Amino acid sequence: MTSDASPTGAAPGEKGNANALPQLTGVRALAATMVYLHHYPPPHAMLGSFLFSCFREMHAGVTMFFVLSGFLIYYRHSSADSLHRIPLIRYCFHRFARIYPMYFLVVVGNAAWTLIYSHFHQPQLSPEAISSLFLLQLTFVKGFSDQFKFLGVGQGWTLTVEVAFYVLFPLLLVLIRRFGFLATLALVYAFGVLLYGLGSILHYDKYFTPFQFMLLYTFFGRAGDFVGGMMLADYMLRTNLVGKGSASQAGPGIKLPFYTLLGGLGIAACLAVLGMLEPSSTIDGPFNPWGSAIYLLILPPAVCALFYGLIAERTWFSRLLASPLLVTMGASSYCFYLIHMAGPHYMLNDWVRACGIFPSYVVLFVISFIIWKFVEEPLRVLILTRAPSRLHPPHHGHPSRT
């Protein structure tokens, strides 16, 4: 899951100051940790049934990534001239540089690992099948199919959702300016239902079907996550809350961190209820109809409340998320997210179990930091510095982290 961790690098005092909201960079580390614990929860015997179920619902970290992405993309790219030709080309170029190079390398590496492993342990796939599966990943098309969504880099289905949002954002911005946020969200949902209907008629590789898949795994069902973040960003821009001082900068501020508590307890309550609604020991809570409603309608506002609290209220939690360690972990969280299930999943799962969940977590984040520092970030900077000068933002002195 990728999303930007801070409004992109403007000069100090400008909208989009990269240092204005370091606590939201730390949120990325928190969200990535939640996804890790969803895939590698502590043993059932250690936690008991209820807590084990709650840990299994830590996929809610994906919702946090989506809300954060909606917030930051709108915060950075909703100005009056954002739909003009050069800003729009710049937006697309920066989105590509931010998300694709690292994803490409991980897909290629995962494919090579799988081929080598299958050569010694399993029958080899045909060259045609390998080419087809590889193309589905690199084009993000796999995330539109229930049949292929976990193909290769399994967590890559979330990038299909993210890329769909990036591609549709200019259109969403036009619709929001004309009809408002909620009407635009309703239109997106309606279009998702239309795609589900077409998929049901065509019956082709389970694209946009079944309905639950469309709802939980595609942008057209998860649009509420992004629109919630966009609405929060719109409020922040209209009230200039960030300019008045964020949680990491403010004075005593609100003594009772109401929104931080509301958001944090709301997220915890959603995890608990989803855990109790799990249809079986192997099926997550959102696959229960009531669980879907909580996951799609209650969890995103709770995440928005937490983000508002982290920005508006001065708390130990916001200071922790803004600390150098958490900011560094947040910066490398995209790499962590891409590699934490790299290679054949069961092999990494066995390694995590053998070494321990916490030591494996630390090792994976150290590896992620090294990859971010010496591969991902240099590649991104290289791509942006090679761009035509007119694609650099007006305040650019260093390629902005968009």
Any overview of this molecule?
- The protein has 402 residues and is an all-alpha fold.
- It has one domain (22-391).
- Helix content is 68%, strand content 0%.
- The protein is built from 17 helices and no strands.
- The protein has helices at residues 22-39, 44-47, 49-56, 60-77, 85-121, 127-138, 157-179, 181-202, 211-217, 219-239, 258-276, 289-312, 316-321, 324-331, 333-339, 345-355, 357-385.
- α7 packs across α8 (181-202).
- The protein is globular.
- Residues 1-19, 245-254 and 395-402 have low confidence and may be disordered.
Can you write the helix and strand succession as a string?
Answer: HHHHHHHHHHHHHHHHH
Query: How is the main sheet built?
Result: none
* Euclidean distance between termini CA atoms: 15 Å
Counting DSSP H or I runs of 4 or more residues, the number of helices is: 17
Number of strands: 0
Proportion in helices? 55-70%
Number of domains: 1
Q: What's the alpha carbon Rg, rounded to whole Å?
A: 21 Å
The backbone outline, from C-alpha atoms, is globular
- Mean pLDDT across all amino acids: 86
Give unreliable regions as ranges: 1-19, 245-254, 395-402
Oligomerization state:
single chain
